[in-house]
């Protein structure tokens, strides 16, 4: 068993029309010290997967079935109090859009200090915040600044400080470079790489940018319409993608084209959870679809070191 093991996870939303299943049988594992990228179009369920792991789902969402293990402990069965001891202490999370998660009424230092789980004297907590600030490239004076006084990159460094202040074993990084300029993005990625190596963290790295995942992760899990359709070694995924959706994502990369060449796109519309087709959810957009694709949802199959969900295999 890996450090994190997700088995057949199904998550639904309560709606006026009834239950709406959004995560549809997620299977995923992350080994100790491994970085796994979760990639896919916006709205496919990537963030919901991370929120399920830390049990911070939206009010109308609930885990219908499945198991989530962290170091052998089944998280789904834990009480709220038990989960609070794991959240932050064992699992740290970097959220999208730090400006939306940082409280504008408290200083950056106060918010990181509040995240410390140990019962320490105030002076010791502040000392620990100063130490983590130094590691992420912030100054001591930033402790006393409010979020609006910090740049986007500095706000993200505060979020990283909050995620790592308790030295967790698992880091969930949800689009950690969203809305950052190219230079700041590179700085944040290099910082994360350094901290992950230093603390030997296991990481679930969520992104819609498959080229960013290529340079950062060990393995890639490709998600479409609430299902993981392919998992494999990062290099193998890019050199020989198996699932038609993965092939489409790889072929969309600008680096594959010469100047002036038209970049290919994936045809059709993004899947609508309220109106998913029968069979494989990708079949309306798939260039390889067959009759069976419109009838049966494919099962996961192991092909060498990879897992793929497609009737072609």
Q: Which features would summarize this protein structure in a list?
A:
313 residues; alpha/beta; Rossmann fold; 4-stranded antiparallel β-sheet
Helix and strand topology:
Elements: E1 4-15, E2 18-30, E3 35-39, H1 46-53, E4 61-70, E5 73-74, H2 80-86, E6 91-94, H3 98-101, H4 108-114, H5 122-136, H6 152-164, E7 170-174, H7 182-199, E8 202-207, H8 210-216, E9 219-224, E10 227-233, H9 234-239, H10 244-251, E11 301-303, E12 306-308
Parallel strand pairs: 3-8, 3-9, 6-7, 7-8
Antiparallel strand pairs: 1-2, 1-4, 4-5, 9-10, 10-12, 11-12
Helix pairs in contact: 4-6, 5-6, 6-7
Please give a structural write-up:
It is a single chain. The chain is an alpha/beta fold and 313 residues long. The chain has a domain of 201 residues: 3-Layer(aba) Sandwich (Rossmann fold), CATH 3.40.50. It is built from 10 helices and 12 strands. The strands form 2 sheets. It has an 8-stranded mixed β-sheet, sandwiched between helices. A hairpin with a 2-residue loop joins strand 9 and strand 10. Helix 4 packs parallel to helix 6, helix 5 packs across helix 6 and helix 6 packs parallel to helix 7. The radius of gyration is 20 Å and the shape is globular. The mean pLDDT is 94.
């Amino acid at each position: 068993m890996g450090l994190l093991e997700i088995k057949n996870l199904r998550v639904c939303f309560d709606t006026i029309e009834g239950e709406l299943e959004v995560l549809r049988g997620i299977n995923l594992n992350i080994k100790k010290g491994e970085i796994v990228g979760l990639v896919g179009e916006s709205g496919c369920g990537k963030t919901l997967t991370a929120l399920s792991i830390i049990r911070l789902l939206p009010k109308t969402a609930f885990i219908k079935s499945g198991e989530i293990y962290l170091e052998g402990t089944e998280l789904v069965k834990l009480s709220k109090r038990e989960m609070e001891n794991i959240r932050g202490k064992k699992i740290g999370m970097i959220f999208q859009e730090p400006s939306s998660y940082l409280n504008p009424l408290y200083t950056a230092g106060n918010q990181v200090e509040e995240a410390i789980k140990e019962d320490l004297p105030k002076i010791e907590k502040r000392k620990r915040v100063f130490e983590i600030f130094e590691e992420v490239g912030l100054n001591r004076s930033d402790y006393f600044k409010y979020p609006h006084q910090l740049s986007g990159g500095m706000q993200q460094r505060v979020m990283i400080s909050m995620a790592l202040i308790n030295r967790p074993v698992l880091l969930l990084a949800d689009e950690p470079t969203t809305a950052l300029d190219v230079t700041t993005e590179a700085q944040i990625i290099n910082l994360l790489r350094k901290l992950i190596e230093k603390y030997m963290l296991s990481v679930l790295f969520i992104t819609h940018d498959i080229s960013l995942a290529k340079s950062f992760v060990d393995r890639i899990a490709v998600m479409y319409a609430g299902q993981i359709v392919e998992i494999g070694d990062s290099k193998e995924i890019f050199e020989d993608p198996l699932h038609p959706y993965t092939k489409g994502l790889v072929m969309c990369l600008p680096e594959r084209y010469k100047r002036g060449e038209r970049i290919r796109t994936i045809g059709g519309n993004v899947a609508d959870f309220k109106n998913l087709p029968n069979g494989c959810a990708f079949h309306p957009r798939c260039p390889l679809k067959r009759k069976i694709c419109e009838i049966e949802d494919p099962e996961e199959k192991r092909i060498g070191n990879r897992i793929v969900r497609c009737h072609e295999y």
